[in-house]
Specification:
Helix content: 40-55%
CATH architecture of the largest domain: 3-Layer(aba) Sandwich
Strand order of the largest sheet: 2-1-3-4-5-6
CATH class of the largest domain: Alpha Beta
CATH topology of the largest domain: Rossmann fold
Order of helices and strands: EHEHEHEHEHEHHHHH
Structural class: alpha/beta
Largest sheet: 6 strands, parallel
Number of strands: 6
CATH superfamily of the largest domain: Response regulator
Strand content: 5-15%
Shape: elongated
Distance between the termini: 24 Å
Number of domains: 2
């Protein structure tokens, strides 16, 4: 997908900041199809426009960024949180809600644009230092909950997904149908009690199924 085909929505309750983010994205050739100054409008705009990525603040009137994330991820919208907070609790809550990435507002315009592109591609994107917080929490949670087991085929699919292969590529590699691969991914998410593919990849890396 080219930059011109990437469709974005920006949600932040500070108009000056929101406008600046929109300008930075547009200057890089990305298409902003909507904007919102509160959480409720963010959900409405995403529902109407179905963007590839929602760039969303955490603290907004109405629904919070976390609540917005929970609402739009099932629509197929990837969420990049852009927040002033680097607190561990905020980062973990956003990721558990389904956010693909978390960037601090101190990030430069090139860093923001790169994060949006990587988020659209399904990569886990975090401001330096925050990824370790997320991975550490997954390790602790998994230790508390015991070690769930995947089937051999689910593990095989997970290893390839974690290496960056698309579902179509995995299907071709393993001589499976696209639907079967998607079913294995969903079963792995359910078994491991994870929320999205980003968390699934982090699990695979932590378990040594693939090296970063």
């Amino acid at each position: 997908m080219s930059d011109g085909e990437l469709r974005l929505v920006v949600a932040d309750d500070h108009p000056i900041w929101r406008d600046a983010v929109e300008r930075d994205l547009a200057a890089a050739g990305l298409v902003v199809v909507g904007a919102a100054g509160d959480g409720d409008k963010a959900v409405r705009v995403c529902t109407a426009t179905r963007p590839d990525v929602l760039v969303c603040d955490l603290q907004m009137p109405g629904r919070s960024g976390v609540e917005v994330t929970r609402a739009v991820v099932p629509l197929g919208v990837k969420v990049l949180v852009l927040s002033a907070s680097g607190e561990q609790a905020d980062v973990l809550e956003a990721v558990k809600a389904g956010a693909t990435g978390y960037l601090l507002k101190s990030a430069s315009a090139p860093e923001l644009v790169d994060a949006v592109r990587r988020t659209a591609a399904g990569e886990a994107v975090f401001t330096s230092g925050l990824a370790g917080l997320v991975l550490g929490e997954y390790r602790r949670t998994e230790s508390d909950a015991g070690a769930p087991r995947l089937t051999d085929r689910e593990t095989e699919v997970l290893r390839l997904v974690a290496k960056g292969l698309t579902a179509k590529q995995v299907a071709e590699r393993l001589s499976l149908s696209h639907r079967t691969v998607e079913n294995h991914v969903q079963n792995a998410l359910t078994t491991l009690q994870l929320h999205n593919r980003v968390q699934l990849v982090r699990y695979a890396v932590d378990k040594g199924l693939v090296t970063e």
